[in-house]
Amino acid sequence: MSISMQVQDCLERASWIRKMFEQGAALRKIHGDDNVFDFTLGNPTVEPPAAFHRELLALAQNPVPGMHRYMSNDGYGDTRQAVADLLSEQSGQPVGPSNIIMTCGAGGALNVAIKTIINAEEEVLLLAPFFVEYRFYVANHGGTSTLVSTDRETFQLDLAAIEQAIGPKTRALIINSPNNPTGVIYGEESLKALGELIERKSRELDRQIYVISDEPYARIVYDGKKVPPVFAHIKNSIIVTSHSKDLALPGERIGYLASNPAMDEVKLFMEGAVFCNRVLGYVNAPALMQRLVAKLQHESVDIQAYERKRDLFYDKLTTLGFEMVKPDGAFYLFPKSPLKDDLEFANRALAHNILVVPGTGFGAPGYFRIAYCIDDDIIERSFSAWEKLARELGMKG
Ligand SMILES: Cc1ncc(COP(=O)(O)O)c(C=O)c1O
Question: Of 225, 329, 373, 395, which has the most beta carbons under 10 Å away?
Fold first, then answer.
């Protein structure tokens, strides 16, 4: 065999992603781009806010000497200060620039966080359904993923299940709120109870257990809801996030890792994480983007536009008889599959040129995911295909 067994194994686990991509491409060839309704990708079609282009232009017209050089591995001080100021304001905790590392997206930050804390074969708990890449990131650093279900009606934290899953090898738990794929936000009381549980288990097992809070959708929230600040409730917590979604910059690979200033041995953790950012080969986050996002910490894409898409899609599908939790944020719907087998449902949808991701891929069989970060026009034009599909399956149609 020419590649490692671990990578071979990951390729096999991820083969459905490639298959879906190929199926979409084949359908587009036959029916044309406009007649295929692809809801598989969380790649925003909205443009970054106008302030981004304004700052980009200003920087290009007034270049700062040395602005393309290497820098310290944690990033520019003023960018980290801007991020720290916002986190302090939101959490009421004294977050400083020394708690921040600018990273290559949330994916980069997750890898840095996991590598920094994990020993071989230690466990990271993932709450199903979860973002598919988590498993691969944990495997990157020799860890083991343990799946814990969230509440199957509400997709909220199931604290009893988390407690049961924590054992002598548990090093971390990853939470993601607003959640991909369900769109739920974990409530303040729930986070507080999670913080207490983790502290109690850490004491009982005499080991530091971290909560990694993956928050790339934190600014994409609806109905006036807010994401409660994890730093206010969980001592050994790490935020990983990016501007891939809130500023619509996924191709620019800009995000950050933040440590709770109250974390045990926080200085050592940050030293380790800066080292990991370097030796994972990221070296530092893109220089140009760091300069821009320092000025954009209070900006975001048009959230109301996403809220309208959510309402449009949610109202239509529930009218057709699909059942789902109404998302509080992010840009996904996660309905119950009307067929027991979600893979079969995805295939039946495919026959109507609708592409969705089966819940099995997120560790939650019996559901499917729709990404609605696409033009309203495509969403609206897909409705007649959804009606036909629903009728075919004996729903209201
Ligand atoms: C929950 C979640 N975490 C992390 C990421 C990775 O984000 P980034 O592109 O910033 O690496 C994504 C991207 O879709 C995501 O949905």
Answer: 329
